[in-house]
Design brief:
With 422 residues, the chain is of the alpha/beta class. The chain folds into two domains: 159 residues, Rossmann fold; 165 residues, Rossmann fold, CATH 3.40.50.10490. The protein contains 17 helices and twelve strands. Strands 2-1-3-4-5 form a five-stranded parallel beta sheet, sandwiched between helices. Strands 7-6-8-9-10 form a five-stranded parallel beta sheet. The chain has a two-stranded antiparallel ribbon with strand order 11-12. Helix 13 links the parallel strand 6 and strand 7. Helix 5 packs antiparallel against helix 12 and helix 12 runs parallel beside helix 17.
Length: 422
Amino acid sequence: MTFSRTVPFSDWLRDICERQPEAARLLGAPEEEQHRRGYFHTLHEIFQQPSSWIHTAEQMSLLAPDLQSCVAGIRNLVLTGSGSSEYAGDCVRLALQKQLSVNTLAIGGGVLLTHGLNALPVERPGLVVSLARSGDSPESVGALTLLLDLDPELRHLVLTCNASGKLATSFSGHSDVRVVALDDGTNDRSLVMTSSFTNLVIAAQFLSFLKRPDIYQSRCQQLSGIVSKLLQGHFGTLAQAATLNFQRAVFLGTGTRFGAAREAALKMLEMTAGKVGTMSETYLGLRHGPMSYVHPDTIVICFLSSDPTVRAYESDLMRELDQKNLGLLKIVVGEDVPADVLRDNDVVIDCPGLAQTGDDSAPVIDVVVGQLLGFFRSMHEGLRPDSPSESGVINRVVQSFTLHFPGDGSSARIDNPQGDGN
């Protein structure tokens, strides 16, 4: 059963439980036990993604006229955020550059704080798109405040999952800032970003479809169907893979899917509280030194392109790993994965329909694989996926810190009542 508007969410979950014993075991436990074991929020937020993407696509499509005015006449576009939110920008940058025909960059919020306008393209007018789950992290508010003060020719669009966050409330009435708050259900309660991440990517992708909202909604429906089938068919496969004897994980992707590799690596690192070391890299970049990281205790997760030329480069690299006998095994995510890039113990996560949607849309599918691997490894390590950092080293929202403003040498502190996130 593929999720759609005509299929109740409860029926869809029941179908997954019938197909996947591990899903039935986890979801069938009393809610109190799910909270006690610390996986209630993360698991439900992973599962809600197929339905939430459809809702986000509908919401964004209604905003087409307003958003067209944001991009009209711009000469460059910058996507910014911190942590996972920065990687969300990585996942859409190339697609926006291609469709809007303007120079498009993904720049971390921290870089904007430290370097201000020097970090931005010089042409004006420009559009800065701020991506955030909570909108309460110091970088998010501080970077936007700084840019508004330094350059009146910049336009700003805020995409956030939290209508009550500082990023949404502090700038909602500003003439140069357009704030879009997604449905509150996307504002993940877990420490790590899962559905918030993919919904921010889905929302930002709409800037490529401003004059084609019907195609955008159809594409999001396709993506929803692909991840629905992935959960139905590979939930247990990924659960088992996460229990293997590995201590390192390397995530590989090309183009927009390198953004997914960065996010997936972070998910494994966060959800295992650093017990599994991770690295993200491009396929071609791996040869330039990082291949030395691939030890016998390393799994290599390969997000395989559907583009024939890109796939040829990626396949060459996978065969090279096999020839050198590097790594414990590969987990290959893609459609029609060729047999000659696989070793006997490799795992294939087949995603029918991925080639039709194209690599520009694929990061949200890749990231779900990373989320599940991180979730199951967290459970295997005896941690609580909702709050895996038992010592409090990291929290849901990054703790307040002092902001230093250029020019006058002044400093300020933006307090965050929630404590810490993205």
